[in-house]
Specification:
There is one protein chain. By secondary structure, the chain is mainly α. It folds into 2 domains: about 1-80; about 85-150. It has helices spanning about 5-15, 20-25, 35-40, 55-70, 85-95, 100-110, 115-120, 135-150. α6 crosses α8. It is globular. The model is unreliable at about 160-170 (pLDDT under 50).
Length: about 180
């Protein structure tokens, strides 16, 4: 997954507008413009598309942690210059205050199952013997689970809304006498 994909998905999941996105970057002491945010959210084939680098995404995720959990006492953590899926996964987990069981539940929502031991391997230090690299599929399923839990979908089409039948109409599913 690209950094832009992660940014787009997080924005969609929490329904952030441009002002909120700029505010989140600001919480990590990073100043961005509305034009920057707009270019990062464009599709890859758009001519105004700009690639989001690791430092910028780390700033956004750190700002998301501050927005969701509040400022940490003492010195604020510095944004990493390089990110991988493991670090992104960890930052999202911290921002949402998720324990291992909650993460596993989110993965199950996205029809992806793993054990608690497999999950803990993603959050270990890279030099640990049980460390495991988080692949795109796992991060994508985690984001999908977050979306299914936190995104409040409203039916927008008449077909999606439940049909309420009037009492005098017969249902086509009723038994014939």
């Amino acid at each position: 997954m690209t950094n832009n994909d992660v940014l787009r998905r997080v924005r969609y999941i929490f329904n952030f507008n441009d002002r909120t996105m700029i505010e989140i970057f600001g919480l990590a002491d990073t100043q961005v413009t509305r034009a920057d945010v707009s270019c990062w959210l464009k599709k890859n084939d758009d001519e105004d598309y700009k690639s989001l680098n690791d430092l910028q995404l780390a700033c956004f995720l750190n700002g998301l942690i501050v927005k969701k959990r509040g400022k940490r006492e003492g010195v604020q953590p510095k944004s990493e210059k390089t990110l991988n899926n493991n670090k992104i996964f960890m930052k999202l987990k911290i921002a949402l205050s998720l324990k291992a069981e909650a993460v596993l539940d989110l993965l199950i929502l996205a029809n992806f199952q793993m054990s608690k031991h497999e999950l803990s391997a993603f959050f270990r230090k890279p030099d640990h013997k049980h460390y495991r690299v988080c692949k795109d599929q796992i991060l994508r399923n985690f984001l999908q689970g977050i979306q299914l839990k936190y995104r409040k979908e409203k039916p927008s089409t008449p077909e999606a809304k439940p049909k309420i039948m009037k009492t005098k109409e017969k249902s086509p599913y009723q038994w014939k006498k």
